[in-house]
Specification:
377 residues, alpha/beta, nine-stranded mixed sheet, five-stranded parallel sheet, 14 strands, globular, binds 1,4-dihydronicotinamide adenine dinucleotide
């Protein structure tokens, strides 16, 4: 099968998420890195792009040049990844969709709910794919959990409890470091700090596994380091359309937690637990019976978990290959096969609505608010 051409905006040398995209997109032989505008510094971006193997005329100085250059080519990129800082996502994603490109946008997809609705409309009217990189949903054992819930193995889901809490911004003496400070400055980060950065991964995952959408929420936000305008800790209670109760804690000051993303799902006939630091295992407890540890790669897992796992049992695959699974599904979708589990602009929009409504709730002392975007009410 012919390889697809892939382009990248942002994710330059030294960026946090850029390497995971490059490893992910190229892991399974589906994509060739053919074009890029990789850095806010044009010369650095072009130089790095060429070192990665991009031809000189397709190592662009900025995303506008890339749009103009790629539009006119017969071998234009089949997919554009947007891995720039948050405030640029909307403009770039919209421009590429309107020009007929498929897009994978980093989270959060936009800064406002209105922008999110606009992206959903543009993706629909152009018929292009617009995916959002909720990559944790693509771990094989997360797909296994989703499948178990969907096939009724836990009965009706009563509760979902999700945490995404780390301690890497917990040192008050480091709070003015520019790489940390911008995340709590509304001019740079928007209306929310930690909830928009990490909490939305956990909320997306709750919906993804439960197979349901968040309908209402009540939030308590705290800026535990007093110089911070935006929250560095949040507790969000929510309810799903089907009545499932949700509890979500997200924090960046939880010193000692490294990448504390874990999720538990409790149904009428069993419970499940998964943690991103041990992504190969799911703990499954059927009601009245002993806890079992299910392992990625073992026999008897769903076809979906098996499809998205490359190496045999007990070998870790990890984060870049979870991102690779997003690209596997994108390649299939671009080639005309459809996978229902690919996170889309609709998921990006729902997250944005939840962020804005959580801010409103926190300002109103935790009042319960409708978490759905106006478009889906
Ligand atoms: P970063 O600050 O480490 O890197 C940003 C990169 O984008 C840099 O190379 C910078 O030069 C480049 N850039 C900035 N403006 C640009 C522009 N206008 N045109 C082209 N390049 C530009 O940021 P990081 O942490 O890599 O985050 C990037 C995005 O990825 C954010 O939206 C963030 O929320 C998201 N992210 C997602 C993760 C996930 O798990 N899905 C994990 C980490 C980040």
């Amino acid at each position: 099968m012919a390889k697809l051409n892939w382009g990248m905006i942002g994710g330059g040398e030294g960026s946090q998420i850029g390497p995971a995209h490059r490893l992910g997109a190229q892991a399974d032989g589906n994509f060739t890195l053919a074009a890029g505008a990789l850095d806010v510094d044009a010369a650095k971006g072009r130089d790095y792009g060429m070192r990665l193997g991009i031809a000189e005329d397709r190592a662009y100085a900025n995303w506008q040049d890339m749009l103009d250059g790629e539009k006119g080519r017969d071998d234009r990129v089949d997919l554009v990844t947007v891995a720039t800082p948050n405030s640029t996502h909307f403009e770039i994603t919209k421009a590429f969709l309107e020009a007929g490109f498929n897009v994978l946008c980093e989270k959060p997809m936009t800064m406002t709910v209105e922008e999110g609705e606009e992206i959903v409309r543009v993706a629909k009217s152009t018929g292009r794919i617009c995916a959002v990189n909720y990559c944790y949903s693509a771990y094989p054992m997360v797909r296994e959990m989703r499948q178990m819930v969907a096939t009724g193995q836990l009965g009706k889901i009563r509760l979902v409890v999700a945490n995404f809490s780390h301690g890497h911004h917990g040192d008050a003496t480091d709070a003015d470091n520019p790489r940390v400070r911008w995340r709590y400055d509304p001019k740079m980060a928007g209306v929310s700090g930690q909830f928009a950065d990490c909490g939305i991964h956990a909320m997306h995952m709750a919906s993804f596994i439960a197979g349901d959408q968040v309908r209402s929420l009540s939030a308590d936000f705290a800026s535990t380091i007093s110089s911070r305008e935006l929250e560095d800790d949040a507790m969000v209670n929510f309810r799903m359309e089907g009545g499932t109760v949700g509890r979500l804690w997200t924090s960046s000051v939880a010193i000692g937690r490294q990448h504390g993303f874990d999720i538990q799902v409790f149904g009428e006939t069993g419970g499940l637990r998964w943690a991103s630091e041990q992504p190969n295992q799911v703990y499954y407890t059927p009601v009245g019976r002993r806890t079992q540890i299910m392992e990625k790669g073992e026999g008897g897992l769903s076809s979906e978990a098996a499809r998205l796992s490359r190496v045999s049992i007990a070998h870790p695959e990890g984060f870049p290959l979870a991102v690779a699974n997003i690209y596997v599904d994108l390649a299939a979708a671009i080639r005309g096969e459809v996978y229902g589990a690919l996170p889309t602009a609709e998921d990006g929009l729902r997250s944005m609505a939840a962020v804005h409504q959580a801010v409103a709730s926190a300002k109103a002392d935790g009042a319960w608010v409708d978490a759905r975007p106006p478009m889906y009410r």
